[in-house]
Amino acid sequence: MVRTRSKNITLAEFLMLPETKPASEYIDGQIIQKPMAQGEHSTIQGEMVIFINAVLKPQRVARAYPELRCTFGGRSIVPDVAVFTLPRIPRDENGEVANVFQAAPDWTIEILSPDQRQTKVTKNILHCLNYETQMGWLIDPEEQTVFVYIRNQQPVMLDELQAFLPVPDFASELNLTVGDLFGWLLE
Known about the structure:
single chain; three-stranded antiparallel sheet; disordered N terminus; 25% strand; 187 residues; alpha+beta
């Protein structure tokens, strides 16, 4: 996590800046660049998008997006995986997916990188839950643990390989255990 500016700027000013690689987020008037994804992070992120889209996209329920900028509630964040139900996906005048998403995802998934602070990522998940997000996952590859955050509920920590991961109601067709998720690192 790298802070790229020391003075506060407005959200409108931030949104006018060119995109960075890796992405920068706007949080509490500060620009914070996300760490560059490494092997574990990229593997889990890629497999998660494929897994979710393989089940929910053909059923026209929802779609998972990697590294999608979501601007809402005075912040502009880039979850590792943002899942939007079909009716909430912004569309342009042609009915195509819009470039700008000014809404919280229905489900936000973050994968902790080795040089990333869990507190910062948790704050983003909690911010999402204060808006329209139903559930947030914080995946810690090093600890092989998943923290599940559900709106208005106590967080759940899962690290037993056979434990099924809770999913939002709209994603009830998804069945994934902690072992399945971290097993992607072995494939």
